[in-house]
Structure formats: C-alpha cells, structure tokens
Amino acid sequence: MIERTLSRLVNGFAAVGLVISPLAAAAQEAPDAGGLNLPRTLSVLGQNDPNLRKPTAVVNGQIITGTDVDQRTALVLAASKGQIEGEELQRLRTQVLRNLIDETLQIQEAKAQEIEVSQAEVDQTYARVAAQNFGQNVQAMDEYLARIGSSPASLKRQILGELSWQRLLRRNVAPFINVSAEEVNEMMARLEASRGTEEYRLGEIWMAATPENREQVVENMRKIMEQLRQGGSFVGYARQFSESSTAAAGGDLGFVRLEMLPSELAVAARQMQVGQLVGPIENSGGFSVLALIDKKAVLMADARDAVLSLKQISLEFAPGTTEAEAQAGLQKFVAGVGQMRGCGSADEVAAAMGATVASSDGIVLRSLPEQIQSMLLDLQIGQTTPPFGGLEEGVSVLMLCGRDDPQDANAPSFDDLMSQLEDDRINKRAQRYLRDLRNDAVIEYN
Residues in domain PpiC (predicted)? Predict the structure, then answer.
C-alpha cells in the first residue's frame, strides 16, 4: 500500500483548448510517407504529453492513477502461476481498483481521526517482508518488484493501508466491543463438551455483495477459484481481494469449530478434505472462497504434531541415464534399503550401493508435505517409506529413527477465547465501518 499525498484536487479536468500548431511551413513539400495520405501542414488538436496520466478514479479529491492500478495488478499476477489475459485481466483490474478505493478511504479516515503511521514504520514492515523473501536484502526486493512491473511504493502503500486500518479499528472499534465472562465460560463449556470432535483451519477470501453487483462478485470469485486451482497463491489473493479483516493474515481464520462458522460455511467445510478449495459460497452479505488448510480433533493429541528424527537415503542417476537403466537402478536401490537393519546400519549400506544419507532431527510431522505425512504416520522406528522421486531428481526413501508423540492438547485459555470472540465482533463492525465510508465518499471515475 503506497502512501500518497492527500492534497485536494479540482474535481474533473479543465477542457483542453483547441490548439493550432503548424509543424511545417506551407511552402515545404510533404516528405514521402510510404503511401499514406498526410497533409503538408499538421494542425495538432490538443496537447499530447506522454508524461500526463489521467486518473482512473478520484476519491474525496485523491487521485488513483492507471499506474497505481497497473503496479498493484502486477503484484496479483506475480502471486498467480496461471496466465491472466483479455476480459479476465480487465476484471482483475476492476477489482484492484475497488481495493485501491477502499484502501484510500481507510487511509483517509485514519488521517482524519489523527491516527498517524510514520514512514519509518512502513519501511520497517517492508524490510521484514524483504527479509522473509530475500534474506536481509531490501535492494533485491526492490529489483524484484520492478522486474514484475510493480514498485516498492505500491507495496508500501498496501502496508500503510493495513497499518492505518488496524490502528483505526483498535482505537475506534475495539474499545466498544463487549464480551462478558459468562459468554467465554459458556464457550469453554461447549468446547469441553465437544472434546474429540474435529476443528478446521480454514483460509477465506470474502467479498461483500449487494443486489446490484451480486452477479459481478460471483463472476470475480469464480475467476479467483480458477486461478487458485491453476496454482495461484491463496495468501496472495486473500491479501489483495478479501474484504474481511483476515486479509492481512492471508485469509487465515486459524482453527475453528464448525458451530462457530456461518451455517453455509460450516456445511461446506464439513465435507472438505485438506488442501481442497470450494466456492463461491453465499454468506453474511457476500461470498466466500474457502481453503481447508488443516484439521484436527478438539482437545485431543494429534499424531501429526509428533516430532520426528529422520534419515533420507537418496540415489541420484547420472546424466543420460535411460528409463530402463533407471528402473534397474531403482530395483537395486530398493533391495539395498531392504538390507538395512534400522538407522544404525543405514549409512554403511547406503555407502556400499553409492547412495547418500542426510539426517535431520526435530521435524514436526505436520510441517511435511501431505503425501509424506501419510507415508510416515504409521511407520515404526527403523522402517522406511516407499521410494519417491524420479529420473531427474533421483529416488529417495525416508527412514524413521525417532518419534516423540504429542500429549493430549489443553483447552485454550479464558483469555484466548475472549480474544477470539472480540476479533469476530471487531471484524463484523469493520465491515460496516468500511461500508459507511463508501456510502459517504465522493468518488469520480475516469
């Protein structure tokens, strides 16, 4: 989110006067134009300034330019592995413009309420994002954004908008949210009564809809679903498109029980498998796309929280190895792994057949890819997974050398549940707050 100067601009643009500007004397002969019928003397009607960009929208006097839309759209395109072109790209740009308008309203409201976010704070957050993605190299982040057609300023404005809105809600909404001790105690009792039932970690992209724009919102959500199924980043799309307060967290709702969700979402989530996407689902005055990130039993130990010690035994194929040669090598590799007698003999046997061994301790099973989790879940100490890999990357097996199983989970604390209920109510108030800002805004479109 870029910080823009909040100068008041004249609504609309002055009409461009008719300018007569001969480019050549009448007596000159017209140059050869390759068959084009051009006059000897040109009269230019208006000024053609390539450095002038007309606004896409003016929000309470503040300009959003086509460049702003281009650079923010580039961030979304970079988060999506699929190609977005034609009408779909135009729909994306339309949604990005809506997001920028909301973002502008949030920043303007924070400033009107004398809530300041310093440039130093924005830069610090930007540096943290760069550290997560490019080590400590902020310049590499700058160069990446320029390479994809965006800019550091565009991302910093997004950061500014999020920080401004969070502080505005913290001051103007959160203090007026009341959750009683009785409500929390009732929730704790229900939680204990539901011990052993499943809770779901969900990601959500939510967009508000009115009777007037309902069909357009549904179409936008369907296009988002298509991009996500083609490998687009759910977190990236949630940050750019979701109108819920969880957008800043990439749409992550955390672990929730189905009775805490709107009935429409609860019905869908109950039928989902981990990694599955569903949507658009109509609920709460809008539509949602859901992603099931994980699920577990309430207040029960989850085997996927086990901490493992593993050895990876790998065999690489030389360049030029044929498929038949690889199959023969795989059979020898499997036979060699079968001769291992636990982790103590793995290194010796692997060396004898030209394989390598890598050891790793303290791995939480849940952090591994879903397919690997399934293979390791029921292994005993000293056993190996089936081989996996291919001709180019080689083949590997994982051997289980140790497992620390988790204990039964404890119920969340009183304060945790209090915070969860407060966050839910703040989210609902935030949606109404932004709707009111839209209703009161003076917005002009180019």
Answer: 197-294
User: Residue 358 has what DSSP assignment?
Assistant: E
Q: Do the beta carbons of residue 2 and residue 62 sit within 8 Å? A: no
CATH topology of domain 55-169: Triger factor/SurA peptide-binding fold (1.10.4030)
| The CATH fold of domain 303-404 | Chitinase A; domain 3 (3.10.50)
- Cα gap 428→225, rounded to integer Å: 24
CA dihedral 189, 191, 194, 195 (to 10 degrees): -110
Q: 36-40, 84-88, 279-283, 411-415 — which one is most confidently predicted on average?
A: 279-283
Residue 107 pLDDT grade (very low, low, confident, very high; cuts 50, 70, 90): very high
262-273 pLDDT tens trace? 888 888 888 888
Quote the tokens at residue 271.
């039928």
Cβ-proximal residues to 62 (8 Å cutoff; 6+ apart), any chain: 4, 6, 7, 9, 104, 108
